[in-house]
Amino acid sequence: MTAGPTLIGSVRRALHLLDAVGASERPVPAKVLARSVGLPLPTTYHLLRTLVHEGYLRKLDDGYALGGQVSELCQRTSLHAVLPRIRPALRALRDEVRGAAYLSLYSDGDIKLIDIADSAAAPSVDLWVGVHESAHATAFGKCILSGLASEHRREYLSRHRLADLTPNTITDSRVLEQKLARCGDVFSDREEYLLGMACVATTVRAPGVLGAVAISLPVRRLGSARVESVRRTACRVSRALVVAQ
């Protein structure tokens, strides 16, 4: 006889509590949760404290509600589901322009790099400084910053220093604002993030989504980058994100 799978009881009980909270439109008291999932009250409290500590639940005055970690997990799940439709577009762009292709999104107040399509013939940029700290020096970062409401952009820049990454990096917030205002829907950086490299980006939009598609390539080839190819790919990605919602 084939043995059944080994199951961890505490994990199953915690998941049942999450299901019970998620099924209710209102916060659920601990005693109600204990009865609904058939657990002793002390065990229920122990599991609830753990779930609250990890951010999967919130403790309110009148009971427990789903926490921020659940929302983030749902967002990541939706994105993972749509990546198979996005990646072919990024790879096609990579092969067409012979440069690495990138997708970045604005999420939870930060700019996040979601996917990269590169190859031995089109290597990605060495991301020696994190995306969070270099939006002002990258084409996709500036593209997203330009699409933010002015108060959100000011809040973002107040939390991220305009680090001097190369002699070409913009480190004056007034100069950056001027550049963001006049570049339209296409942004570039010429050796602002890394000497010898350039980047071109344009905006990705869907309901509730702001992002950018970008390509990187040696600065000597910047003039040969096809902006319309980047725009076309951004449109394909935007449509995929709309369908996923």
UniProtKB/TrEMBL annotation:
SUPFAM superfamilies: GAF domain-like, Winged helix' DNA-binding domain. Keywords: DNA-binding, Transcription, Transcription regulation. Residues 69-243 form the IclR-ED domain. The keyword Transcription regulation applies. Coiled coil: none annotated. Residues 8-68 form the HTH iclR-type domain. The keyword Translocase does not apply. InterPro entries: GAF-like_dom_sf, HTH_MetabolicPath_Reg, Tscrpt_reg_IclR_C, Tscrpt_reg_IclR_N, WH-like_DNA-bd_sf, WH_DNA-bd_sf. PANTHER family: HELIX-TURN-HELIX TRANSCRIPTIONAL REGULATOR, ICLR FAMILY, HTH-TYPE TRANSCRIPTIONAL REPRESSOR ALLR. This is IclR family transcriptional regulator.
